[in-house]
Amino acid sequence: MTTIQRPVGELIRRWRERRRISQLDLAISAEISTRHLSFVETGRANPSREMVLRLGEHLDVPLRERNQLLLAAGYAPAYSESRLDDPELAIARDAVRRVLAGHEPYPAVVVDRYWNLVDGNTSVGLLTEGVAPDLLAPPANVLRLALHPDGMAPRIRNLGEWRADLLGRLRRQVEMTGDPELDRLLDEVREYPGDEPEAGFPRRGDIFVPLRLCHEGTELSFFSTIATFGTPVEITLSELAIESFYPADDATGEYVRRLAAARGTIGA
User: What element of type H or E holds 126?
Assistant: First the structure.
């Protein structure tokens, strides 16, 4: 298969249009003339390496795609990409594992750009209990785990609103990155059977979309927070996200702590 390399000017224009930013606004924020920006986008001017990086920053282009801009302009990539188990990422890897361990007895997962499960604490088993083994085989994808009919979906009491929230997050990610692999994932998971979003309106008084999950006949309620590295200049770290689940009510917190104590995973 032959990959067609688009001119850097065309790529910059596509990113600008994806962000719904005018040439004038981008030129002002990047401190260049609209004439020069127009020349870059039409291929009449070749941007310097510094200019490509500056435009990528002001357009909030992900690091992976900033490297593609540089390559299209004839420059070497600026951002490295390592495996999470590489020695260079040992400090970051240790920090992630401390966060996961410190969140016990509540579930927490680490996912990559494509929602693949990178790591998780022992309490993740509370969420994945009963999931089909093939969905848990590496690389397990947390969207498939959550929404596939052989995954968590049958146990999610508010599948409509939870599904709508996950699909909305993925849709925004597709818009942000323009990644065709994410677009294919979106096409796949939204075809899974399940309640339509309108069937799962939040209850009156809710301040977030909870995950209402049945566990051994008991309905549990969780909300989640997402953490990312604040100033990454390495692609792998820039694409990691830690999602931590917290009890949304006292009954859930008590149930999870009691279950963990009974299993000996953490003190009550």
Answer: helix 125-128
Residues 140 and 19 in one domain: no
Looking at the 3D structure of the chain, how many domains does it have? 2
258 contacts 105 by C-beta, under 8 angstroms: no
Among 44, 72, 100, the domain-final residue is: 72
Burial 245-258 (b: 16+ CB within 10 A, else e): bbbbeeebbebbbe
Which CATH number belongs to the domain containing residue 56 in this structure? 1.10.260.40
Summarised one tens digit per residue, pLDDT across range 151-189 is 999 999 999 999 999 999 999 999 999 999 999 999 999
Q: CA-to-CA distance for 147 and 265, rounded, in angstroms?
A: 28
Provide the CATH number for the domain around residue 131. 3.30.450.20
* pLDDT confidence band for 196 (50 / 70 / 90): low
**The residue to which tokens 């006292």 are assigned:** 250
From CA 113, how far away is CA 84, in angstroms rounded?
Answer: 13
Q: Taking Cα atoms as reference points, which of 64, 40, 26, 80 lies closest to residue 176?
A: 64
C-alpha span between 64 and 183 (Å, rounded): 16
